[in-house]
Every structure is written in C-alpha cells, then in structure tokens.
Amino acid sequence: MRVWKRLLWALLGIAALAMVSYELSQAGVRPVKLVETGLLAMTPLALAAVGECINEKAGVINIGIEGIFLITAVVGVYWAEVFNSGLIGILMGGVFGGLIGAVLGVLSTYGKADQIIAGMGLNVMSLGLVQYLLMAIWAFPGIHIFPRELVVPRLSLPFTELRISPFTLIAVAAAVLATLMLGRTLLGLRIRAAGDKPEAVDVAGINVNHVRILASALGGFLAGVGGAFMPLGWFGGLVKEISAGRGFIALAAVVFAGLNPLLALIASFIFGYAEGVAFTIVVTPGVKEVIPFHFIQMIPYLLTIIILAIFVTFRRFPNALGKPYIRE
Amino acid sequence: MSGEVLVEARGVVKSFPGVWEHLILDHINFDVRAGEVHALLGENGAGKTVLANILSGFYTLTSGQIYVRGKPVHFKSPFDAIKNGIGMVHQEFTLVPSLTVVENIALMLRKHNPLSYPLKEVRERTLELSERYGLKIEPDRLVEHLSLGEKQRVEILKVLYWEPDVLILDEPTSVLTIDEARELFKILRRMAEEGKGVVFITHRIEEIMAVADRVTVLRLGRKMGTFKVSEVGKDELLRLMIGEMEPVRYERGRSVEWGRVVLEVRDLHVLSDDGREAVKGVSFEIHEGEILGIAGVSGNGQRELAEAITGLRKASRGRIRLMGLDITNKPAGEIAKLGVRHIPEERRRMGVVEPMCLAENMIIREYKEKTFSTAGVIKSKVITEHSKRLVERFKILTPDIWDTEVRILSGGNIQRLILARELWKGPKLLVAFHPTYGLDLKAVTHTHQHFMELRQKGAAILLISEDLEEIFLLSDRIAVMLDGRIVGTLGAREATPEKIGHMMAGVGAS
C-alpha cells in the first residue's frame, strides 16, 4: 500500500482524536495539557518504532521491544542513581538496549535462531528479570521511587505554552534521520537489500550478518532510550510493569507505518495521544463518572488491535524478513 | 588464444555430504585464459553452475585448489573472488526487487563511506557502461517491475562495474531472444578482445559454435574433456554431453483436429505492478488440441496476460471465458479447479514453495482432495507413492522427497517438479511461460513430448516463450505480442522466423 493511503488513515485518526479533544475542552480540559501528555506518551513508542523500522528493513524482526523497555527502564534508573544524572541514565538505557539488540542480531544471523521465539523469550525473561533486579538493587519488591531531580526536565517550546521533553525532540529527529539514512545513504541501501535480497549484499562483498546485527543494535538502542525515558523522562518512578504493553503498541505502529519511520512517528503520536486522552478522561470531572475507568484504559490497546487487523494485510514485508541468510 | 592463464582450478571436488550419491564435482581441472571465451557445456546436474559458483566464491570447495594468475587463492566469499578479478552473472539474479536499477548497482560500492550517497556518479558510470556494451536499461525503474531480459542486463552491468578480468555467465542466453543473444555474443567477443577471460555456461551447442574459443564438457560431475571449438564437431560435443544415448525424437503430428474453443479472450486489459497498462486490448481463442504460441520480447505484457488468465492478476477490462464459462477475475483456486494449469515465469518465486519438500510441493494444488487427505489430515503414504511416480516419470533428480527443501534443487529440477505437478492430471488449458527455460536438451525434448501428448488428448496450450525455436517447433498458430498488443497471428505453415522476427521488433507488422 502506498504511503499516501497510510497517511490518509493517519489523518482520519488525528481528526477523530481532535473531535474527542474538542469535547474534552468543552468539559474544561486545557488542550495544551492534552498535547503535552500525548507527546510524552508518544516518545517511547516513537523511539522504539523508528528503531524497529530499521531492523525490520534489514530483515530482523524484534518482537522483544516490550522486554527491552522493561529491562532498560530498570537499568536506566540504576545508572541515573549511580551518576546522579537522568540523562546518563537514559543514555545507559540506550546502550543496554543496543547490546540486547546486538545479541538478538547475532542469534538471528550466526545463531540461525527463530526470531519470533528469541523475541518472545526476551519478553518473558524480562518479566522475571525486572522483579529480580528491583529486589537485588533496591531490596524492595515491585516498585522504586527515586529522587525527583533525576527526572530530565522539560523545555518550554518557543512561541507556545507547550513544555516538552528533549527526548520528544530526539524521537522526532530519530525519525527524520532514519528516513534519510534508509533512503539517502549507502548504509541504508545495504540495510534495505539485506532484508529484501541478502544475496545482493553478499555478492557486493558486504557481510549480510554484520549489516543485520548493526541494524538490530540500532533498533535496540532506540528502544532502550525509550525504555529508560519512561521512568526518567516521564513517570518519575519505577514499577515492575512500567511499560504496560507499550512495546507491543510500538510494533503495531510499525505495522501501520509499513516500515516507514516518519509514518511510524505519526502512528506513535496517535497512539500516544489516545493514551493521553484516556489519562485525562479518567481524571476529568463530569466525564469520569459516565465512562467506566477500565473501559477508557482499554482504548489504546483496542486501537492497537484494530490497526493491526486493518494494516497487517496491507503491509509489504521485505522478502527475507525473519529468515537467516545461508549462502549454500 | 594462448593468453595468460587468469584462473585455474585443479582437482576441484565438491560434495554436498549425505545428499547426493555421486560427487557434484569429481576432480575437475579447468582454466580460463586472457582473451578467450571458454564455454562450459553440460546438462542439468552436470555441475556447471557449481563449478562457476566455486570459481566466483559463492561455494567453498571440498578439496582441490584454485589459482589466480598462478597464485593459489582461497575464496571465503564472492567478494574474495571479485577482489581477484572474477565476477559472475548468476542465472538466478542477485538483484533487490524493491530498489531501482541504479540503487542496485550502487550497492556494489563497498569501499565508500556508508553514510555517503554517490548516486550521481553511479548513474553516470552505469549509463557509460551500458552505452559501451550496448546493454539498454532504464536507470530509475524498480527492479521488481523489470522483465527477465531487462534484469539480466542490470545483472551484467552490476558485475561489469568492477571491471573484472574474468566474467562468468551462467546460462545467460536462456532469457534472451535470438537477437538479444547475438548482441550478447558480440559483447562477449568484445570483452575477450579487451583481454578479459569469459566463461560462458550453456547447454546449447550452437551457441558454443557461435561464440566460444574453447569448450569444456561436464557430465554428472565429471569432466569429459576440453577442446578447441575449431577442432571439435557438434556431434561429438553432443555425444560427450549426453552420453551414448541418442536424443529422443518425437512426432510432430499435425493431424489433431481442433475441437471446441477452450479459452476465449476478448479485449483484455491488464495493469502491471506499477499501474501501467501492460495488456492493451488483447483478443484470441485457443481450441481443443491446439497450441497457440505467443512470441515476443519479454516485458511486452506476456506475464500480465498469463497471470490474468490464471486468476493471479485482475483484469481491468475485457472478458476471459473457459469452455464458455466466464472466468474473468475469478479467484485463482477456482480457475485451477476448472482444469487450468500454469507454469509460471519465475519458478522459484511463483512455481514452488522453496522451504517445503518435494512431496508437499507436488500436492500443493490438490492436497484438499480426497485422494490426498481425509478431514484435513494428509495421507502421507498415498502422497509418497504419487510423488515417487512423478519423480520417476519426469526424471527429477532429488535426494529424497520428504526431507529435502526444494530450495536446494537445481533450477532444472525445480522446473521438472513444476511440470510434473501441472501436467500429471491432464489439464484442459495449460498456460506455459518459458516452460523449458534453463532445461537441458533431454529435458526440453521430454517436456515437448508431454506438451504434444497433452495436445493429442485435446488440451489447449498457451505457450509463451522467447525461444522462437520452441515456438516454431510446437505451435499450431503463432501470435506476436508487442507493447501489450497482439500485432499479428500466423498459422504455423505461413510463419517464418523472418516474419515473426520483424513483428517482434515492431517493423513491417502485418
């Protein structure tokens, strides 16, 4: 399906959200607040989704984003406390995410592993690992509150009332840079070729596995930044199920985008904004009494399922997606 | 002819352990000299492609040694070979379908900064090379929209980009028209004159006579000898290639009475993948017991026509009737059930499911029928018997039928598998696209025999081929397709290669 068709769907989604926002503003909610929450919720989704676009272009599916989110959230907070800096914490989250991505890359190339199973393993393992780490590091089960100063401060956007996180800007920049990298560099050509026809990369004397591991590490890095951003740039605290399925929502955004990083950004905004709306509805007097809390909480996930159902058939997968490259 | 030895293989052995009974290559000696075209002749499974893949670093050898300009080398990857000046044009192309022609060639820039994008240079150099060797291309089209012939030209350009000393071409003429092949031979001669060594793989002896200086004959992994082309006769080469057995002849027999109209196509319009109108109002009919040959350079709408008839592609306008029944835009499965069979253009991509085994591929059309399954559970015994019978009858070379992925079979054997699956039931209509592309002489004869048998039984066959010889040999009527239209139809008696050739080229069409 062509880009503009996806874009049309995205505009439809934005229009629907705008209508809801208008209704909420009638109920006394400040639109700025809605956008701010939406952008915060968009950030981890967009970072991970852009990263996933890159590694899927190269032929590596990483369905373990949820796992990377969970692990890097904990790792990020740990290093933030060690260095007393939220920024370093988020960066370390990225580094760890990159490492996990690289390992997944090695498994799915040299290891010839089934990428779906590897990703599932990562997701399942992270559930236990996070609880263990919380106990091992802070000796308290399931939750950890860190000093307020560690949360990366938000910036005021000039000419507006908006206050946004620098990492939101980084997510937008990542989408733009990823688009340029994939479309306007030799590296991008190699990545796209590695996913679509690895033999072509091989005859050029370029190691297919290296390209794929690099792409997988890049994807993991971005997901890791997103994971550490959740406690250190957004919530200001750490709980064991902090990502709450956002890793899967990011995957849905990738499917919607058809591996186009800019569309992935837009999709992430729609999902993020929907989440922000849900948050807001829950606390808005006059609305929260009418619609049950759990129903509203369900909205982002429902949206995910609907989008997946519509777009999964429209998607043009790279030919060699998920398949290890074996020359002979 | 007595130029420097550029590449030499000594005592090369290749075995795929536990898969084949004989060695794929059994102590082969082979060399290529500067300024010569050295042909590799052999049937499917003779080991030509494997030897070429070893010389070009795609496969590692089991034992033996390769020398480049007298120095021993060990190729671990295709690029090792390229660094040593050996480039190969593969039969199955190594092009990325989702990239454009220029992007595919830019992929070869290994040493450039990976964050740079010197597409302008690549385009200029590509156009220069394309001019120099007469390889016409459109640099900005997506490769997935190109025809086989066009893809091959891109593939050759890709290899030429490195200015290799030795160029290996694996069955390059099988996708070309006669004129294109002649053009290619000129190019090969030009390369040889420039002092390059050219290895030219083929199973067509005429082509060797036309272009090669020396020829090495392989049979079932063994070398039968190397000869100067000027000192060896066609008959001797044929005998060395296929053994003592006489090539099978079959009865042409034009006595079949045409019956009812089986396929009727009226004013058919079909779009190509990139949304252009590829078939622009085509009408024809085929009767029982008739073979209609469609000649034409690939990329003139043949693929879209075949896919519209078999239900793989929507027709945008027009009607297709099978035995009077309207099948326009019916699902492919439904059309197949009515007795339409299809030998598709790209056998690996469309003809088989590569990661599945032979037996599974064999029943992929009929697995739901009671013969092969009960309540969704397949009857493996019946299927084994069925597959064995077809393997025997169609002479498919395969290690076994359940345990090997079809992926590892050679192109010729995959084609035999497809033929077996599509023909065994005796279809009403067979749409055959390049049915003998890449097959050796014996297999071609074999296939043609099956076609004649089908015709005798009253089936209709739509034969789409760029191989004019094949078209002339089999067809009762010959239609020529050019730019999405049928520019003329001739009866087999009135058609001559000149007339058809002119029509294909778009001059003096009647």
From TrEMBL, chain A:
GO molecular function terms noted in the UniProt entry: transmembrane transporter activity
Compartments in which it is found: Cell membrane
Keywords carried by this UniProt record: Cell membrane, Membrane, Transmembrane, Transmembrane helix
Main location: membrane
Pfam families, alphabetized: BPD_transp_2 (PF02653)
Keyword presence, Repeat: no
Membrane topology: Multi-pass membrane protein
Transmembrane segments: 61-80, 86-110, 122-146, 166-187, 248-274, 294-314
The keyword Transit peptide appears for this protein: no
Residue ranges of coiled coil: none
GO cellular component, one term: plasma membrane
Name of the protein: ABC transporter permease
Automatic annotation (TrEMBL), chain B:
PANTHER family for this protein: CARBOHYDRATE TRANSPORT ATP-BINDING PROTEIN MG119-RELATED (PTHR43790), GALACTOFURANOSE TRANSPORTER ATP-BINDING PROTEIN YTFR (PTHR43790:SF9)
Gene3D superfamilies (UniProt xref): P-loop containing nucleotide triphosphate hydrolases (3.40.50.300)
Source organism (scientific name): Caldiarchaeum subterraneum
Name recorded for this polypeptide: ABC transporter ATP-binding protein
Alphabetical keyword list: ATP-binding, Nucleotide-binding, Repeat, Transport
Keyword Protein transport: no
Superkingdom to which the source organism belongs: Archaea
InterPro entries given in the database record: AAA+_ATPase, ABC_carbohydrate_import_ATPase, ABC_transporter-like_ATP-bd, ABC_transporter-like_CS, P-loop_NTPase
Domain ABC transporter: start-end pairs: 7-245, 263-508
UniProt xrefs under Pfam families: ABC_tran
GO MF: ATP binding; ATP hydrolysis activity
